[in-house]
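Input structure tokens:
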């Protein structure tokens, strides 16, 4: 009786851990292939905020965002 309960609990814990890591890997690869924001979207957002976006400023912001995603 004890072995059945122990096996069930251990299987549940292993399944949760395995599912978490698989989901994390899938989401990281998905976000890498489909970034949530690109240069054009960033340019439009800056123009909506009343700023005139220069290419240098856009490159800086994209670099900062990509560094933030890698953490």
């Amino acid at each position: 009786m004890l072995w059945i309960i122990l096996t069930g609990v251990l299987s549940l814990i292993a399944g949760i851990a395995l599912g978490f890591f698989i989901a994390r890997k899938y989401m990281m690869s998905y976000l890498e292939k489909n970034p949530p924001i690109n240069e054009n979207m960033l340019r439009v957002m800056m123009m909506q905020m009343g700023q005139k976006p220069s290419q240098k400023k856009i490159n800086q912001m994209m670099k900062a965002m990509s560094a933030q995603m890698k953490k």
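The radius of gyration is 22 Å. Helices lie at 2-33, 39-48, 55-70.
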